[in-house]
Amino acid sequence: MTCDRVSIIILNWNGYCDTSDCLESLRKINYGNYDVIVVDNCSDNNEADLLKERFGQWAHIIASENNDGFCKGNNIGIQYALNSLDPDYVLLLNNDTAVDVDFLTGLVDAAESRKSAGVVGGKIYFFNDLKQIQIVWGKTNLWHWQLFLSVPRYSSIRKVVDKGQYDYTREVDWVSGCCILIKKEVLNKIGLLEESYFAGWDDTDYCFCAKKAGFSVLYTHRAQIWHKNAQSFSKVKSYRAYLGARNRFIFMKRHASKPQYILFVLSSFTVYFLVMATYYSLVVGKPAIVVSLFKGTVEGFSSLTK
Predict the structure, then answer these.
(1) Average pLDDT, 10 consecutive residues per value, the chain (306 residues)
(2) Range of the domain at 83
(3) 226 and 243: one domain?
(4) In sequence order, which residues have a C-beta less than 8 Å from that of residue 235 and are 6 or more positions away?
(5) If you ran DSSP here, which 8-state letter would residue 276 be given?
(6) Are 257 and 138 in a shared domain?
(7) Is 1 contained in some domain?
(8) What is the DSSP secondary structure assignment for residue 218, as one 8-state letter?
(9) Least packed by Cβ within 10 Å: which of 15, 106, 164, 275?
(10) What's the predicted TM-score (pTM) here?
(11) Residue 8: CA atoms inside 13 Å, Cβ hemisphere, count?
(12) Are residues 142 and 85 in the same domain?
């Protein structure tokens, strides 16, 4: 029996070593019908050429002339896959990951197990600890305007060891864009990632859009990967804070009701900002990030009221 064709899309930005390790990990998987697309997001030091030289006979290497963000870069890969490779599924996978040999089989089997399934994610561990869970799935309450994780947000401090407590397949609100399988029918119906996010909140947004279109979002423990966690963003922490604050407005404007959005705006300029400012100033000791948070909050609000 032939298995469904999957196009795996990996975005590279100044991460040649991580991307190379990820690709070597993918070479070993037990799945018979997949292809790999690497989109280089205008990296320095000719990384696109280096990747093409090392992996060009096995993977499709696309060099983008600009770095227009995570969403745009992945959309380039998705469009290439749909136009040239005709996959049944597209898988977005972070470049700073390593995968279990059966992870893709687990994702596809979960997607095929339910007719309504449109998006599937798996169990994600911290890269430096084979059994410490980083994230599995999340939920969102639009009245609280926050993303709630099934694993505590600060699990890097308070370890959550895998004891089988997340060994199931179930419908959820959203799964992490670190590893997200999307059925072709979903892409045909709702389109690509929303590029106004640039990076961050795009995965939650896409899951919400899929659910609104009648598809279900699934988590399955049978797909396991290990994640180094935001390697690209570790180089630009203030920008990450800016995008996080700004993108919350984009998400809420797209999905919240009017009362929910009004409450969100009021809270953003009072409770949320004060809590985050205190955390980054006194706990983290990086007051410069507070400036980025304020800038993101103001720009997120002003851009959506024009």
Answers:
(1) 88 97 98 97 94 97 94 98 98 97 98 96 91 90 70 60 94 95 98 95 96 98 90 64 90 93 87 77 77 87 66
(2) 6-233
(3) no
(4) 14
(5) H
(6) no
(7) no
(8) E
(9) 164
(10) 0.91
(11) 27
(12) yes
